[in-house]
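Is this the right way to post structure tokens for a design question? Let me know if I should format differently. Anyway, here goes:
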């Protein structure tokens, strides 16, 4: 039984940074993970993925502001977001998949989801 719990969201001023964390239970070892976000009235969109074999994939529309990593000892998948903009305001979700070759930031290829953590960027 896989469970994902996101944390680290909150209220941040434009230009600030956040580090989101996804705690993974019930799943160890070789798996791919990704971060998605969903703003009010918009579809869920993938923003970063770390694949089981080590590759990292980032969405182009967030430029160079993302860093995804995993901590095997703590069994977490973390996402650093720099240079936050008001348009980054959304609920951020962590997801995992056991697919060997998932499409990195396609939500349809992920089958385990957390409840999300709210990120609000406002002055």
């Amino acid at each position: 039984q896989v469970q994902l719990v996101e944390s680290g969201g909150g209220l941040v001023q434009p230009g600030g940074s956040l580090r989101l964390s996804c705690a993974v239970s019930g799943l160890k070892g070789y798996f791919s993970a990704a971060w998605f976000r969903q703003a009010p009235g918009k579809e869920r969109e993938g923003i970063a993925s770390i694949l089981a074999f080590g590759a990292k994939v980032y969405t182009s529309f967030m430029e160079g502001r993302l860093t995804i990593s995993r901590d095997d000892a703590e069994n977490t998948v973390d996402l650093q977001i720099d240079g936050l903009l008001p348009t980054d305001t959304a609920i951020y979700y962590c997801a995992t998949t056991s697919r060997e070759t998932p499409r990195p930031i396609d939500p349809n290829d992920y089958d385990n989801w957390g409840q999300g953590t709210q990120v609000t960027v406002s002055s």
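Format looks fine. Someone answered above. Worth noting: The mean pLDDT is 95. The longest strand covers residues 18-25.
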